[in-house]
Amino acid sequence: MRLELDHVMVFVPDPDAIEPGWFPGCTYEPGQRHTGQGTRNRRVVFPDNYVELVWIDDADAHERTGLRFGPRCARRAGACPFGVVLRGVVPEQDRARFAGYVVPAGGPSLLLLRAALDRPELPFVAVGESDGVPTPRPRDRFDPAFLQQPGGARGIRRATIRNQVLPDLGSLRSHEVTFADSEPELRLEIDGVTEPWSVGASH
Asked: The Glyoxalase-like domain covers which part of the protein (predicted)?
């Protein structure tokens, strides 16, 4: 089953760890605090997908969610600080691989790859789906003022998550997302930008 890329995730210790050179020529959308989840984010938004930078800002609230982002955000050795959220419908034969999750305080419904919840060395993987309906595209969810980037970037054409441990997604595929066996790195090929963007695990 082919799914579309909704967004890529970069886990960071705090907002000060976001380096200006990661996404040149882009404006960060203000992001939001995920009340009840203990996380906060900033986002680089395009009409069809986006980049989410996320950190923990309430450790107690986050501990209760079972998401276990701590090792990822701390960039702990062996933990993968990258993730991806796909948009589509998970077929019945693959649903057992995923656990249902609703972002607290009225957030979206997601299916989370169980193996990545238990093993932070895997890239985090989720699918935006609620009752068989895919998550709407960013153009239908975000302030239009942030969808056009001043540097000419128009969207993520392909995201490659390199990591030494790769997720098993069963029949799920996305032509926009690739997982590759290598040292941890997020590489983004961007429409409207000549050079790929790259974020390493050590940043």
From this structure: 5-131
